[in-house]
Specification:
Layout (H helix, E strand, L loop, with lengths): L5 H4 L31 H15 L2 H15 L16 H6 L1 H18 L5 H17 L6 H18 L1 H24 L3
Length: 187
């Protein structure tokens, strides 16, 4: 467990070298990234329960989210050269590439959800994902909020407002930490 240094308790940010040497390689430096998440045990369980409902059909729900994103926000297709030529929602729904990417998105979120009660492990997933999207894929970080909002809309449509409410804090944490990873990558 990481104990706060005196600088952290006073609000000053410690340098990276003050981090414990036991951090996994996936998290080389998180000193400038807020690494505390404030989920109660009840919130974690509620969020996991909400997520399980939509994740049980990860490929179809992931596809629905991407198709909705591409149709409601057509500019997002510009990041995917192999999706650009697809104009109809039906064509997109049938695409193995979109279905596969939708499932990958949902699997990544599932990995994060499984670590809501462990900030270090959560950041070990989010930080490399954010860095890759910032530096290699050059995806505008605003699109994470877009995709998270669509996931919340789908949750509400399929399972009601309580399900959506149970997961909103998770999407906020995901977007916050992805944006922080972008800042660390120089965006």
């Amino acid at each position: 467990m990481y104990l706060e240094s005196p600088e952290e308790r006073t609000g000053a940010e410690p340098p990276c070298q003050d981090l414990p040497a036991l951090l996994p390689p996936a998290v080389p430096c998180v000193a400038n990234i807020s690494s505390t998440m404030s989920f109660s045990e009840a919130e974690v369980q509620s969020a996991r329960g909400a997520w399980e409902k939509i994740y049980v059909d990860a490929e179809d729900n992931g596809t629905t989210v991407l198709v909705r994103m591409f149709t409601e926000h057509p500019d997002t297709k510009s990041y995917f050269s192999h999706f650009k030529g697809m104009d109809s929602a039906e064509e997109m729904k049938q695409s193995d590439q979109i279905r596969g990417h939708g499932k990958r998105v949902f699997t990544a979120i599932n990995d994060m959800v499984q670590h809501l009660d462990n900030s270090e492990a959560f950041l070990g997933i989010v930080n490399p994902l954010g860095k890759k999207h910032a530096t290699q894929l050059k995806i505008d970080p605003k699109n994470f909020r877009v995709i998270c909002d669509i996931i919340l809309q789908l949750m509400e449509e399929k399972f009601g407002g309580d399900c959506k409410a149970s997961f909103e804090k998770v999407t906020n944490e995901i977007c916050t930490h992805l944006n922080n990873a972008y800042k660390e990558a120089g965006w």
